[in-house]
Amino acid sequence: IQILLFLSSSGLFLESRESHTCGIGFKSENKSCVDTDECVMDPGVCGNHAQCFNTPGSYYCNCDEGFQSTPPNFTQTTGQCLDINECLVGTYECPGDLECVNTIGSFNCSCPKGYKTSRLDADVDECLSSVCGVHSSCFNTAGGFLCTCSPGFVEHENSTCADIDECKDNLDICGTNAQCRNKVGSYNCECHQGYSNYGNNQSKCIEMSCDQFKAESDVESTPETLKHLRALLRSSCESLRTANGSRKTGEQLLENVFTSTDELLSEGNIADSETLNQFLDVVENSMRLIGPQLKEPVTRMETHNTFAEVAVMRGQTPPSGRVTLRTDSALFSTSWETVVGKSYPGFVFAALVSYKDLNSFRDLLHKMSRERPDDEERSVTYQLNSKVVTAVVSNAETKQLSEPVMLVFTHEEERAESEGVAYSCVYWDEGAWSGRGCERAWSNSTHTACSCSHLSSFAVLMALYPVQDTFELVLMTHLGLALSLVCLFLCILTFKFCRSIQGTRTSIHLHLSISLFIADLVFLCGISSTHNQVACRIVAGLLHFFFLSAFFPLVIVIISAIAFPAGYGTDRHCWLSLDQNFIWSFLAPVCIIVVLNSFVFTITVWKLAEKFSSLNPDLSKLRNIKGFTVTAVAQFCILGGTWVFGSFLFYEKVTQVALYLFTILNSLQGAIIFIMHCLLSKPVLTHKEMHNAPKRQSSLDSNYILKISPAHSQTSDSLYEAFHRILAKSHQCVFNVFCRPLQVRDEYYKLISRICSLKEKKYSEFSTNHSSNSQVHHR
């Protein structure tokens, strides 16, 4: 796409929008945080036999009548509703001598077995006298009582409760990787060397490896904080494998891990993709080590740069249902069956970790692996638009899950999808983002939901597709540049061969025209030659030089080329790259020149307003205003004022207007120079009087205002001359600095006539010589 000014200003004005992040349980609407109704989003969040009640930022569940939970108010991960056995807890009311019979959620009153009448003698509560003995529980019944042994005990023939030797009754209770040790009312599984049950003494032991925490994983660039964290985790892992020595609790380890991650993210130690890979791997492996050791069913921990939630379930049978974890910027939902996997050792966990400050390393995180060739052809730009999160479960087989997991991300920048914007669900794959195994379920301006068949570190990328320029813009660019090339060529002839206008300013104008001519020609012929990388870089270097004929242009280009040669040429155009802010090697001098030109233009307009009427007092006021306006507008174009329209290119409501103004005014810069410096430089006097009258001050010639164009100028000389004359000769300022009584147009006409006369003379001499030679030959 070939737009002269659009390329020059690319990267100068970046749209900045504040991202608005709401807390847990809230969502952003119209730049304000409103409560998320979890009861509406997930009607089954409380399970069966329960009612959901929404609260600001959260929710709670209450059991239906006839059911209970611990605690009474619970969430999906902290409780569930169980039937109340009214007959056991004594909350039933059966009239007369009817017997209580428990049902799901209620109870019935019926006659005892063996009775048909409706009346019985009053029952005596035998349990009050502790008739069942130790390790048992007494339950009163109508006309009697029932003794039940406590868990871990069994009833003997003499109605006493004796300890159950679980190790003998169930030889596989601890599995093959542990030794079962019986104790009164219970048992312990003592793991073999290299196996662990993570402190869950009645769970089976699984093989445990600490290789992921070995020091050999460190490389030279590994930060010291990461090395110390890995050493701490390795020590804790080894203590679990050997079951010897003291070790930190899961809560202590979790706090140590997030303290270290805060240091890593705050100090900016993550400088390359290799370090980032190590960091994410250590966090994932640490959660696998710490999760099973946490005592509470749900653990939440928030630090300056991290936010984590971990859910743990223990029991003899695998849990079922759904588990949902939340952080400040993401939601993770899956089933306990997926968390368990193929084997259940007696405990499972699921964890979600969100990194608040990892987005500051955008240069590392914006890289997208090229999995779709069409994206490369379309020059798609990817931008991270969510927090990075790591999802971990106890299931070791997470490369291909039996059921996809769901992740919902909050956008950093609220932006709806459009022709140029699309959201992608990705995971970090050893140095680049990849979308394999992740699909976008739904998306709006504030959130994106992802369905993934594996687990890793995830995020949402915003793909920015380049908006194709219209045919009208391309046509205007080509026609404007072609016209400018013709006009600049005529300017070069004029400034080179018109002897009466030769001088310092004319020399400056000549070199200005040559620079513009070469730059426009190179742009027109090579701006889109991206198929050849070497040629594209050469084109970009030439454009950089000829569009920046200010100060020390060659020095700037040489330094830029040596410092970052890869910055010349992009995927779309043969121009300067935005990587490492290389575009500022062009934009910085341009900005300085624009500021200086604005100052000079202000002084020029001020002096014009003071002096214009005195130049020719015979002219009417209307003609003075007209002449002043034309001169001011002309100088605005010559001084590069049209570049100001670049500041509007990134505002959606006026982008098209600014783009068309850019294209029209700046592609015709060569034509404007020709008109102002050649065609409109004739004095006010008539053509005959101009040749016969002595030289005098004429109306203000706009050609000699300080030539500081954003892309072509000899700024230092022109500025010095301008300000010197303004300060030294206030009365003659406008005339001496900005005016010169040249008859350029007449000289231009003379030049054309001289060239034509020269051609006619040469033709006449050729004809005469040819005729003479013919006569001699005839003789």
UniProtKB/TrEMBL annotation:
Topology with respect to the bilayer: Multi-pass membrane protein
GO molecular-function terms, A-Z: calcium ion binding; G protein-coupled receptor activity
InterPro entries registered for this protein in UniProt: EGF, EGF-like_Ca-bd_dom, EGF-type_Asp/Asn_hydroxyl_site, EGF_Ca-bd_CS, GAIN_B, GAIN_dom_sf, GPCR_2-like_7TM, GPCR_2_ADGRE2_ADGRE5
Coiled-coil intervals, chain numbering: none
Span of domain GAIN-B: 297-468
Transmembrane domains' residue ranges: 473-495, 507-527, 539-562, 582-606, 627-651, 657-680
Top-level lineage group: Eukaryota
Keywords of the record: Calcium, Cell adhesion, Cell membrane, Disulfide bond, EGF-like domain, Glycoprotein, Membrane, Repeat, Signal, Transmembrane, Transmembrane helix
Residues in EGF-like domain copies: 35-73, 83-121, 123-162, 163-206
Compartments reported by the entry: Cell membrane
Record CDD domains: EGF_CA
Domain G-protein coupled receptors family 2 profile residues, every copy: 473-681
Assigned GO CC terms: plasma membrane
Record has Ribosomal protein as a keyword: no
GO biological process: adenylate cyclase-activating G protein-coupled receptor signaling pathway; cell adhesion; cell surface receptor signaling pathway; epithelial cell differentiation
PANTHER family tied to this protein: ADHESION G PROTEIN-COUPLED RECEPTOR E1-LIKE-RELATED, ADHESION G-PROTEIN COUPLED RECEPTOR
Entry protein name: Adhesion G protein-coupled receptor E1
Source organism (scientific name): Cyprinus carpio
